[in-house]
UniProtKB/TrEMBL annotation:
It comes from the Bacteria. The keyword Metal-binding applies. Residues 249-332 form the TGS domain. This is GTP-binding protein YchF. Its cofactor is Mg(2+). CDD domains: YchF. One of its GO terms (cellular component) is cytoplasm. The keyword Nucleus does not apply.
Length: 332
């Protein structure tokens, strides 16, 4: 699952990517320092996994991961190709969700594409370009579907109907055709220690937003762990990573034992049978049942055998809906 880091040029996208992934990328103070997207795998912080590994004396700990993609900045006119817009928009099409970086501080030494940062205007610029590209995509899909509908194809007629009202296009249709403006979005406001802009009047269409001092986070990520602890400095990046993970509609279940404790990623609402596929297709195809316990109860029991002895393990069938935090042993 991929999160695309997008926004206007020079708002902190590559700096955030560098802080998240510890990969050295070009963070120069000028627009379009990034052309080709940078991709990095980021571990999802999870204290539950650490605690499970401790009681199982696991040799390995394998956390859940998400991919972050640093996409070059978009400008007004991107949908018409301005600033290599078509190329950059195609990169957004390939991600599952968007992390939209908005500069929320003034600093005359840091270039802004419009001369001066304006969070509301900057957000609208990106949203407009995504919507314009989607309208172009929808027009092409609709024209092809109308031709097929005339030949009597029922599915084509239904597609034409679904595309009639752009704002009410069903989410499953938007997902199928990778429409950009329908992708889940997390707004990250890049703030600073001073000269921050007033965000109180911003009315966003989503509850997914987070203020973050990206420059400071990049400095923190470069510090050795011991130095951070000595100074009592705590990064806010885990909060961002968890928010991005939730934005994708994902939950985590665990397996634990002496060999390894591992976090597995599945879509929220998955059945036990479908969850098995995260491990191997055989776990779905040959599913018999699943022994399940919530992670806190397993920690309380202090071992799988004690949990079984106490009768805390539940035997669940293929239709059981897995909860975030379940620890599962599959029977196939």
């Amino acid at each position: 699952m991929k999160i695309g880091i997008v926004g206007l040029p020079n708002v902190g996208k590559s700096t955030l990517f560098q802080a998240l992934t510890k990969k050295q990328v070009d963070t120069s103070n000028y627009p379009f320092a990034t052309i080709d997207p940078n991709v990095g795998v980021v571990q999802v912080p999870d204290e539950r996994l650490e605690k499970l590994a401790a009681i199982s004396h696991s040799k390995k700990i394998i956390p859940a991961i998400v991919e972050f993609v640093d996409i070059a900045g978009l400008v007004k006119g991107a949908a018409e190709g301005e600033g290599l817009g078509n190329k950059f928009l195609s990169h957004i099409r390939e991600v599952n969700a968007i992390c939209h970086i908005v500069r929320a501080f003034e600093n005359e030494n840091i270039v802004h594409i419009s001369g001066k940062p304006n969070p509301l205007s900057d957000i609208e610029t990106i949203k407009t370009e995504l919507a314009l590209k989607d309208l172009e995509t929808v027009a092409k899909i609709k024209a092809n579907a109308q031709k097929e509908a005339k030949s009597g194809k029922k599915e084509a007629a239904e597609l034409v109907s679904a595309l009639e009202n752009f704002e009410k296009i069903p989410q499953n249709t938007a997902d199928q055709y990778q429409l950009l403006s329908f992708k889940p979005t997390l707004y990250v406001f890049n703030v600073s220690s001073k000269n921050n802009l007033d965000l109180s009047n911003l009315k966003l269409p989503t509850s997914h937003f987070l203020p973050l001092d990206i420059g400071q986070e990049n400095d923190i990520s470069a510090m050795p762990e011991e130095e951070r602890k000595e100074l009592g400095i705590q990064s806010q990046l885990p909060k961002l990573i968890k928010a991005a993970y939730e934005l994708l509609g994902l939950i985590t279940f665990f397996t634990t034992g002496e060999d390894e404790s591992r976090a597995w990623t599945i879509p929220a609402g998955s059945t036990a049978k479908h969850a098995g596929r995260a491990i191997h297709s055989d776990f779905e195809e040959k599913f018999i049942r699943a022994d399940v316990i919530f992670w806190e109860k397993l920690i309380e029991a202090n071992s799988w055998s004690k949990a079984r002895e106490l009768g805390w393990l539940r035997s669940e069938g293929k239709e059981y809906i897995v909860r975030d935090g379940d620890v599962i042993e599959f029977k196939i």
